[in-house]
Every structure is written in structure tokens, then in C-alpha cells.
Amino acid sequence: MKGFAENLKSIIIILLVVLLALLSSLRLMKIQVVGDKSIAAPNQYEPGTLTYKKGVKATRGEIIDYDGNVIVTNDARTDLVLRMAFFPTDLKEGNKTLLGIYRALEERGYKFKESIPVSFSKPYIFTSKDTDELISDLNLNVYATAENCIDKLISDYKIDDKYTDEEKRIIAGMRYQMIDKDFSYSNDLLLAEGVDEKTVVDLKEMGNFYRGIEAIDASERKILRGDILPHEIGTVGPIYAEEYDELKSKGYSYNDILGKSGIEAALETELRGLNGEEQIAVKDGVVRDVKTISDATSGETVKLTVNGAYQLKLQNILDNFLTNTFPSINPKPWVLKGNCGAICVLDAKTGAVRGMATAPTYNLKDYSENYDYFLQAKDSPLVNRCTYGLYRPGSTFKTITATAGLNEGVITGGTPLVCHQLYNFYGTNYSCTGYHNNITVRPAIEVSCNCFFYEVSRMLGIDNITKYAKLYGLGSHTGIETGDAEGYLCNPETFAEHGQEWYIGYVIQAGIGNQDCGMTPLQMAVVANTIANRGVRYQPYLVDSYYSYGTNNLIKKTEPTIAQQIELNTPDLYDYIVGGMIDASRSMPARYSLTDLGYDVAIKTGTPQTGADLNEQNSFFIGFAPADNPEVAFAGVIESGEYSKYMIRDLLVAYQECYGLNGVKPSKPKLPEEVRPELTTTTSTTTTTTTTTTTTEPATIEQYIEPAPAAQEQPWTQPVQQQPWTEYPAAVPTEPTVPYDPNALSSETSQEPDNN
Length: 756
Fold this sequence. Notes:
By secondary structure, the chain is an alpha+beta fold. The protein contains 24 helices and 23 strands. Strand 22 (619-625) and strand 23 form a beta hairpin. The termini are far apart.
């Protein structure tokens, strides 16, 4: 028995040895045939070899219009950078190298761009109020002076007295740039952008003297069409310190560009793509090996929902009305100026944005080349009035009040209400523009009878008016990719937020859109589209689809999104509302007629008051077409104007030409040549001829704030004019802070004329 046990033990040992040998053979074969990534990197190189990883930048995606015309692309350039792997570790040697590089660039017409906020010559002073980062980086106390900062850099980096004061300042500035831009193996120091070939050759030849200089391929954003949707396209710019702390964990380096506004910012992830990574081996100042760890993936091409030709036509329609049409028919030139406005156009079947014009506007190329001009330009052209202009909707809001009245059952389509031109509410008389006697909802919409809607508003109460305003999307963001103002509703909650008292008389004024409230033209276009779709509210969107860079390979297409569906208790309620809007479209002068287009158009206009003087007003319109099978919805506003509805015919004719309408196929006109009007300014001192959007950091929000207007009797009755534009385009708006008169529009003469 003992012999058997020992034999069994021997057999087991032999089997284990054979198994281990077999596993070792398989492991060796795997290493020889396919390699082993787990083998330590140092074993691959000679002793003394330095290895480090660097990012490989992806090409940023293009932005194109609905017809495929390129709006923004990339332009190749060559940059000079300093790489840490080759830069002298000895401080004194490094100082010598930095000064030599600075002078070499200077001799060839290039200036090293530094970020230190200190004057270049003595006596040193701070050139910016924002010095906290500099003082913190240098570990100085909060009371440190500019002189203290330069002295600290000179001391820390052993900048010798053999250098002149100017040379010390040059070296100190470059040393701080290394700190500020996180100079490291993975972050090169940018020396100069867009250098010519001769400079590259010259400085490469100086490599033995000034170690670490490297020429790299780079690209910059190039705007091909700066006149198409400038507010929505947006800009790119450098990464700043406050952004970098968060972005570096996402693979960004200090030398990357970042979307700052508009589509460029909203779709940063899609446009940026994925950076690659490579491993570099260096020995004795020479690159010995470069291995690709991961390839860079170019950003996606973003296709917009907007046809560039239509956008230009729409902008021209708005500009022409403000410049030519309205001045020739202005009924109150002593009070109505008509300098600004906006038009929004949507695809009625999807919610896709088909055009957004705002006036005054600007060209993105001009913005990047002459930024100071736009800080001082009249009427704030940088503001996107379509998405950030807050206006009273006036009588266009009556469509919402009608929806609420019919759906809540306080009226039916045949309910007559009395209009004797005056409406008494709690002892105060409110007026109408006509004497309509007994009138029902459809003709009340057609003639915009105030008395009818005062009474409907009284029966509904403010809670129901607020409820339906929210169902139509008012008082909240639309969801558009580039962001917008949420606006505010007229109700006790809003007044309480602003510290103001609510009066019962505001209820009936809220029902005709003529009390304190703020809606954007885009929101009102959504209201029109919701009526067109009989209670179905689509979310507006600007991006049609995404493609692989440089190809026609579709990655993703945006699908329409239903944001809200109003539950109809009265199935035929929209028959009355749409019928009244069709009737309203028939009272137009022949030149602007909407009755000979081959289809019915449904519209509603409004002239909301904007000040204590009843003559002060805006002009608003909403609508859609064809009325029986809507394909396009729209809204527009003219500040301090009238007769804005005279633009509707032209915008529909242009829509048919560019997109097709009512069975007529589009003719697809080509983009006209870009026209850049001459900027007339005497204050701007810096202009260039570049066509890129790589700009210096935009100024602070405060720089966009115009001087506050003089005190008025009703300072908050119209947000656009009484609360000057305070927002950078495509930024999130701050809440209004201008006080307003709690007695606004509750006098006996308060009314909203609707004769345009």
C-alpha cells in the first residue's frame, strides 16, 4: 500500500511539471508571436532614455448649412513650440535659451505672447484688475505689487544681473508663461502661431543653441461665411485658467481651442473629436522612438437645419423693412424709431429652425477682426434678439387666452360677449379700438377685440391664463441647442419674485399680453407652431444631422421632439382660433397681400405698449401657412414700430423658393457672394485681415451693459428697451433687476391698439 501511495505521488509531481512546462511554452510563444504590452517600457530602451506621453490633436469638425455649404472649416498652419523634454533643466541655461528664442522671433517679425498682467517697463504696474491668479501662482501675499511679482520671478529663476532690466522682464514674462500654461512633458509652450517656412528653418537650425524648439502642424478655425447665422454659429477661443482645471481631466491642453458660444460651444464634444496619444522616447536630446498609443479621431461635421440662402434673404427682408419700408410709412415718426427687430421661422412639421434674423446684426469675420467696434456699436448688434430679446407679445397672446377659454369651457365657439368700446373692471375703464357689440371668439381674434378678451380673462382667472401660457412653452427655455432666455410670465408669482405688489387689474391685461411679461420671438414662433399643429408643441432645433469628417457618412440625424401636447377638452377649439387668424390675414394692402399666394395664411398681430406714452409700442406678429396643412410657422417683432406684418408675404415667398411650399418644389438658389459692409468707427485701433475666429477672450459681461436709461414713469413695461441688453450672445441671461411701476397700464386709458 505504501508503494502505491509513493508511486501516485510521483505521478502527480510529473504531471505538474509537464503542465508548467506546457504553460511556459505557450506564454513564450505568445510573446514571440504577438508581443506583450505588460513588459515594462524601460526594458525596450537603453539606460538613460526618457519616455513620456503626448496628445495628438484631432481636427475640429466643420459646420455646414442645410444645402451643404461650408460655413466654418479649418485652415492649416505651422506653430513653433518649446518642448520640455529638450529644454535645459539648469535655470541659468534655460534663461539664456528663452532670451535667445525671444530675440530670434522678434528679428523675424514674431512677438512672443505673454499672459502676465504686468507692464513691460518700469515702474511696473498691473495692467489688469484680475491679479489674484498671478499672486497665487507666485505664492505672494494678497498685497503684493507688480514690482514684487517681477522680483519674485527674477529670484526664483535666478535671472542674473548681467541682463538688462528689459531682458530680465522678457525672461520673467516667459517664465511666468511656463507657470501659467502648465509647461510640462504633455503641455508644450506656444512660442508663435502661423510662422512662415523660412522662420521654421532658421529656428530649427538654431536647435543646438536654443534646445527644445519644435515646429508642429496646427490648424485654426476659418470662417468661410461670416454673414450666415453669426449669433448661432458662435466662436472659439483659447482655454483660460479657470476653465483648464476642469478641462485637463478631459484631455485638453492649454494650447487647445474651445467653443465659446453658439454651436461651437453647444456641440463642443461632437466638433472637437477625440485626441490621440503617442509615446516619445528621448535620449541625449534626440528622439529615439515614437509609438502611437491611440489615433486621433476628427470631429464630426455638423449640418444645420438652416438653408444659408434663405437665411440671407430673411435677414435682407428684416433689414429692408427697417431701412426702407417702415420709414416711408411710419405713422408716428416723432415717437416710433423702428431701428431693431427679429424674425424666427420654423418647419411646422418638425420644429426645425429654418431661419433666424436679428437686426442689427454683424459678420463673424468682422467680430474677430474688430471686436472693439461691436462693444460700442449702436443698438447692441451682438445680442441675438430671436432667442434673448424679451418682449411683450401684445395681442398675439390672445390666441393663448382663446385656447384657455374654449378648453376650460368658460366660452364656446358661439358664445357672444359684449364690446361697447369700454370695459369696466373694479371701477376702472379699459378700452378697445372698436365698438364690436356682441362678438364671438373667431371675429374677436380677427379684429383683436380687447373687450372680448378682457371678459374671457376675468372668467378664466390668472391661474388658468398662466397654466395655458406654460403649456405653450412660455416662461421656460425652448430647448434649442444654443440656449435661450426663459422669459417670464405675468402673474402674482413673478411680481412677488420682483418684490412688487399684484393688483387685480393686471389679470385682464395679462390676458391680452399687455402687462409686464417677457417672451422671445423664438418662443412666440413655437406658439404659432403649436396652434398650427392643434396643440402639439415641438421643441425647436438647429442641428439637422452629424456626418463623419470629410465624408457623406451619416452618423446621426435629429428626430423631432414633442415637448408638450395640450389635452383638448373641446376638440374643435382650434377651428375657431385658426379661422380667426385666417380672417385676420385678409386685411392687408395689395402690395403685402396674403390672399393671392395660392393658399390661406393664418396670422395674429399685436402692438404692445412699451411706455407711459400710449404711442410707444412694438409691433409683433405670429402665423403659419398653409393654414389647412401647415408647413411653416413664424414670428417677428419690430421694436418701436408698426406694420411688422408687411414682412410676412416676402418671408413666405422666399421660403417657397428655398425650401418649397404648398406643393411647389424649391428652386434651391445658390449662395450669393458675401458682402461685408464697411464698419464706421473712429474708436477701434486694432484691425487685421485674418478670417479666423481665434480671438482674444471676450470682455466681461459688464462691457455689454449700456448706460441705464433715465428714470421713467414705467421703467419696466418693456424689457427690451427699458432693461438694456446685458448678455453676451448665446449666454444664459441674468434675471431682470430693473424695478417697475406696480400701477403700469392700469389707468383708464390703458389699451392695446391693434390696427397694424
